[in-house]
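Example 3.2
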Amino acid sequence: NNETDTAHTAAAAAAATTKLILILLVFFISSTYLIYTHRLLSNPTTCHHIVSAAAVANLTSTTTPPLGGGSSIRTPKVSQTILFVPDHLGENKIVTARDLTEISHLVFGIAASSKKWDRRKGYIKTWFHPHTMMRGFVWLDKRVVMSAEDHATLPRIMVSGDTSRFEYRNKQGHRSAIRIARILAEMVRMGLEGVRWFVMGDDDTVFVTENLVRVLRKYDHDKWWYVGSSSESHLQNMYFSGGMAYGGGGFAVSYGLAKEMERMQDRCIARYPGLYGSDERVQACMAELGVPLTKEIGFHQYDVYGNLFGLLAAHPVTPFVSLHHLDVVEPIFPNMSRVQALEQLKIPMKIDSAGLMQQSICYDRSRNWTISVSWGFAVQLIRGVLSPREMAMPTRTFLNSYRRADYTAYAFNTRPVARTPCLKPFVFYLSSARMYSRINRTVTEYSRHRVPHPPCRWKLADPSSIQTIIVHKAPDPRLWDRAPRRNCCRMLKSTKNDRMMIDVGVCREGEVTEL
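Structure, written as tokens:
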């Protein structure tokens, strides 16, 4: 009996111990669940999946027929972009395709003068299209006569508010700088809906609007952003400010910053009666708000005289956003008026705006020629071999805005057009551009610009035998979603002795620009 009682007692103790363990286990699991649930509800976090721009491009791409025939490769198509991550912001932000900044989110404020209106309105017509989703206003000092065509092809005309209460003391400038500086505040007060960015420019500024949108998509419009660029002239930057966005090249102000600027701008302007221009006053107010200039070097002030060829043919590796001072410089294409030249530039702009003006450098190894393609603008053939470092440097086809200053007064390096007569480039300007949608290729044709060339004694093939250059290139709208790099160009076989064929595209693995 004692043995039986002992066995029952041991069994009861074991059962009690098991029950206690089960109770403690349930309590532990329940407590853990409650703790994690509380943390999740009180401090939620977003799971960020970083997807590269290239991956997004692949996911959103459609079928592209191959060049050489055969079956096409079909990639999955999704309804929206999964994520857009600006590299320089240091934070992840989920953005669907529906949330991406588009041209409809921009409002242009164009500063104009009634005295120059008839001469300059043609520039605005080349890039502003009121029947699309573009929004903008031309701000004048007084009403001007408008034809029916003007009403159909130009932004709405506005007359700036009275600025007589503001003092202006700069003897070298004009008090119109005050009314132009206030355009930003006046547009904010209009209460427009769906605005993310206000973009300022002059009546002789031309924007490549698709590239402008590409640049502004990198920034959060709800934050405070002041985006533009400085002058090409080092002296201009010294006299005014190297931290100022020059208004002629254009600049953009995010909606969040514009709202804050509107609240204080009139008080701010009153504190700076001695400043020269409108962009100086805007920058002074930005300084009071503590907002620096975010430089995007595709905005071009072009404080130069003469021919822009050297600057355009060696455009930096960045989207081509704007050009300015069209009344001062020569037409960008020869034997045309300024407006005709801009209309010519619109042809490649429509078929591949991302690639416009982008430079590619390669070599004709059989003839020892250097080739530079500025896509959609011009091609250069040069006897001999010049390094990519040299070719990426603008040639001095232009003069400083301070005519007494020499080439050392630029904010960048330049080089002579030719160190010897034999190195004078043979220039071929764009004559036509076509898009072949079926094979997803552009074909641009460049015709030789006939100007005298000095005699050359080098025992190299003479580039004067080439009359036409044809460039094949696939449009690349995602070009600026990748890390910046020049495209590569390659020689193609041509069946005609007076014609050169070139292929331009993304550099292949291991491809280097070398002879």
